[in-house]
Amino acid sequence: MGYISGEDRHQIQFYTNTLEELLDEDNPVRIIDAFVESLNMGELKIQHAEPASTGRPPYHPKDLLKLYIYGYFNHIRSSRRLMTECGRNIELFYLLNRLVPDFRTIADFRKNNAKAVKQVFKAFVKVCMDLNLYERELIAIDGSKFRAVNGRKKMYNEEILKKKLVRIEEHIAKYLNGLDQADQDDQGTSHYTSEEIKQKLAELGQRKDICRQCPHRCTPSKNYKVVKFGSNTKYVPILMYGTALKSLQKYPASEIPYNAFKLLKGRAKKNVVVHIKDDIPTQKLRLCLSEHPFGTVKWYHGAHYLLCKGIEKATAELGLSFLAYNLKRAINMVGIKKLVAAMKA
Predict the structure, then answer these.
(1) Per the CB 3.0–4.6 Å rule, which of 240, 270, 315, 319 could disulfide with 121?
(2) What residue spans of 51-193 are helical by DSSP H?
C-alpha cells in the first residue's frame, strides 16, 4: 500500500473558474471589499484620490487601503510582508485584481494618509452604529502602553534624568574649580575665562531649573508630589484656583485624606475634591469594554509595538489595528452577509 499522492507539478492544466468562484460567500475579504468601495476617497482627502492627467498613473488608493485592512485583519503589518502576500495569496488576488505594489509604495500610503486612516476608522464605527452594535449606555476610558520608536536623544526616564542631573552637578563643580584656579593663577592657565565660566554656569543652572519645573516630575524636587489612593480613601484634595463662574467643592472637615498635602496649606485656600465611588458591577463592565480590546489588539494582533514614527502616524497605525478588531467583532456578532448588505445599501 502506497502513500497519498498529489497531482504532477508538470501537468498542464486549464482553470476555468474565476477569482470570484475561488472565495466562499462567508469569506471576510468580501466585507473589506464592500466597506472600502463604499468610502469616498475625495471626502477622506486621501492622496491620489483624483489621478493626475500627466505622469505615471498611481495605484488606486482603494486598492492600497484594502491591502492594509486585510493585513491588519490577518496580523500582517509590515509593508514587505504585504508585498510578498500580494504575489501568493488568493484572497489578495481577489482584492487587488492581482496587483503587486512595491513595499515602498505600500509604506508611503500609510505614512502620507495618516489623517485619512483615522477617518476610515470612524466610518466603520458609523456602520456599526447603524446596525445597533453600539448600545451607548456606558463609556469606559482606559489607557495602555505600546512600545514606540523614538530617538535616543529624545528618550527620557527617571534613570536618564538622574544621570543628567549628576553630570550637570559635575560640570558645575568643574567650572567652579576652574573659576577658582583662574583667580589664583595670574598667568591665566585656565582653558576658560571668567566670563565664559559665568556664562556656562548660568546655562547649566537654567537647564537644571527647567528639569525641576517639568510637569512629569521624573526627578525629586522641592515641589514633588505623589497622589496615592488608599483602600479606604474617599476624598483626594487637588490644588486648584478655579474661576468666578465655577465654585470649588469644599473639603469635608470630618474626612481625613490619604495624602494631606501639608505643603498646600500656606499656598491655597481652595481645594477641589475628587469623590471616588465604589461601583463593582460597573467596574467589571469597564474591564470588558476597555481592557479586553487593548489586550486583544496588543497580543493577539501582535500590535504591542508600533512601526511608525510620530504621534500622528502612530495614531493612524493604532486606528488600523482597532479597525481590524472592530471588524472581527462585527463579523462574530452580525455575520458576513448582513454586514456586506449593510455596506452596499
Answers:
(1) 319
(2) 61-73, 79-86, 90-96, 103-112, 114-130, 158-184
Is there a contact between 34 and 344 (Cβ–Cβ < 8 Å)?
Answer: yes
Q: Could you give the maximum distance between any two Cα atoms of the chain, in Å?
A: 105
**In this structure, what are the phi and psi dihedrals at residue 285, rounded to the nearest 5 degrees?**
-65, -35
Which residues make beta-bridge pairs with 272? 238
What single string gives the DSSP state of each residue in 46-72? -TTSS--SSSSPPPPHHHHHHHHHHHH
Which of 73, 74, 58, 149 is closest to 112 using CA atoms?
A: 58
What is the CA 222 to chain-centroid distance, rounded?
33
Burial class (CB in 10 A: 0-12, 13-18, 19+), 146: middle
Are the C-beta atoms of residues 190 and 182 closer than 8 Å to each other? yes
DSSP state of 237: E
- How many other β-carbons are positioned within 10 Å of the β-carbon of residue 23? 18
* Closest C-alpha among 309, 305, 334, 337 to residue 321: 305
177 Ramachandran zone, left/alpha/beta (phi>0; psi -120 to 50): alpha
State how far the Cα of 36 lies from the Cα of 129, in Å rounded to an integer.
17
C-alpha grid cell, residue 156: 527620557
pLDDT tens digit string along 166-190?
A: 888 888 888 778 777 776 665 545 5
Angle formed at CA 65 by CA 126 and CA 299, multiple of 5 degrees: 80
**φ, ψ for residue 236, nearest 5 deg:** -125, 120
Strand ranges for the chain from DSSP E: 235-239, 271-275
Q: What is the pLDDT of residues 66-107, one digit of tens each?
A: 999 999 999 898 999 999 999 999 999 999 999 999 999 999
